[in-house]
Sequence to fold (703 residues):
Amino acid sequence: MSKSKLALVPGLTMNRTPSPHPSPPMGERVPEGRVRGIRPGSWPLRAQGLRWSLALFAAALAASAIAAFGQEPTPLLTQPADKLVAILKSPASQKEKADACRQLAVIGTKDAVPALVALLGDEKLSHMARYALETIPDPSVDKALRDCLDKLKGRPLVGVIGSLGVRRDAKAVKPLAGLLRNADAEAAQGAARALGTIGNAAAAKALRRALGGVAAANQLACCEGLLRCAEALSAKGQRKEALGIYDQLRGLQTAPHQVRTAALRGAILGRDKAGVELLREQLRSQDYLLFAAAVRTSQELPGAEVTLALASGLGQLPVDNQIVVIQTLAQRADRAALPALLPIAKSGAKPLRLAALRALAGIGDAAALPVLTESLADADSEVAQTARESLASLSGPEADAAVVAMLGSNDPARRLSAIELIGRRRMTSCISALLKATADADLRPSALKALGQLGSPADLPALLDVLSQLKEPADLEAAEQAVTAVCAKAGDPEPCVEKLAGAWSSAQPAQKSPLLRVLTSIGSASALMVVRTAVTESSPEVRAAAIRALGAWKTADAAPYLFAVAGATSDSTERTICLRSLLGMAANPDFPAEQRLGMCRQAATLITQSEEKKLLLAALGSIPSAESLELVTPHLDDAAIKDEACAAAVAIAEQLLKGQNAAQVAAKLIEPLQKAAEATANADLASRAKRLLQQAQSKAGGK
Fold:
């Protein structure tokens, strides 16, 4: 079985690095009979039974992997512990011994300890021996590991040090402390980290004593160990000891910045209310990293007292620091910050003012409304826009009321801002106010845009009434967009079509064109009937708009009406619009091929110009059928369009020769392809035609 598949089996991962397994509390032993690595009382299972369950599970998983990959099995958890111990004592290969260690990590007992310990000095097997030893719940393992500390060197020693940490052996504190000044930097650093993992008061005391004298290269590891001890002690309620560590580390000027900032966090959080005073002190620190750490820590502390500590003295900080604090106050969303933020938002320096205006939105209190609404008219556009963004996101009825009051202002700019905010805040209660605002030419475009955003199909009659009173193209376009948006929200478009048709009878020509475009966007059968009738209007403007609407229709239902207009009109422009629209539909692959072919046949009876013929050929070239090729073939002799005809013929033939009925249609392709190959001056097109001709001849001959 391959290494990659062994990795699928729990407890049998190849070349696994020992990792901190769940361990009992510091200094506490797991009684024999309990699951190793699980605290007493957590699972009511016997260790031996669970370990054999794991063994059976691993074997079953391995068997399924073998069945899936068809490989010969490798013995996994199939041997008893005494046989595995015997393998360790024998001259077996490195792989066999590593496999035995791996299995003993699951089923090993204290009987396996001597054989495993004997491998700790072996550079190649020390790793796997510790892998097994770390999980055996017997005190003899700890004693054996401690005894090895003065016997091993190099990597094996570092590994044993790590294993003592993993097992949280309280008796290892003294010998590990002796290694903190070891000449081997890896061993000294490993000892510091292992003491941190053990994390009891004795380990902390040893690390604190050693901190001042360790080599500079080992200082970080020693600090890391102390931070781990402080966390463990704090979790056990030994706050005084933990605070002593934090205070020592944050005052250590030679410590790396990450150590000092982590220690400051612990010192603040560990002091409860007294931590607020330390926070206040550090906010005035000249060291930006400590200042930033204090601010970040404040986010973990609740209460208005913390907010006031952040806000007090804000003006005495450098601008960059003030911005950091203001952003933190926004995240806290505590209204206790408002007395400090409101003056800054109103008249502070621009960077601070922008930060404060944004923070007011985060706090979300109605007390910010006067400053925000006043700032909307600021001469600095960035300030005004920031205030607008904050006001848009401020929730609550008070904010809605402030926006409505703005709409009633005599200041046009303020009223425009109110309309924009009504749309952004989704204030549907203001629909009637927006309709009223359309009477003001300066407000009309914005009001109509907001009505399109907020209105529902129930508001369509009122919108149509507004449209009926408009004459300017820009106003009509804005009304059209609003009506289109409202109709798009209707689940059933028919009531909207009825209202549009009702508005049609009294509308002026200039107003009927927007109505036609709205009907086109709806695209239903009833909407098409209204548009079809509009073609008979006496107004040239309305008739032209109706023809364009038919040409833009989303379904092929409009094709017969386009053909009828093209055949009856004497206006060349109308005829061209109809033909081009008809051929555009014929080229649409979303429509059925038979329907598209019918459109092409209809259009062919009306086409006279070469450009229109080219459009016809392009449409036919997209329809893979023998009938479309028949319509293309006569045009191969027309010098003005022969290249387009050849391209269409080749495109159709390519598709037909790929189809299931290629043998049946191949004979019909030979003559058109011969003509295409001879007629075109395009070398590439001629080559494609000849290649297809050979295929057609071959398929026709083998029919």
Summary: The chain has a mean pLDDT of 88. The longest helix spans residues 47-69. Residues 1-168 form a domain with the Leucine-rich Repeat Variant fold (CATH 1.25.10).
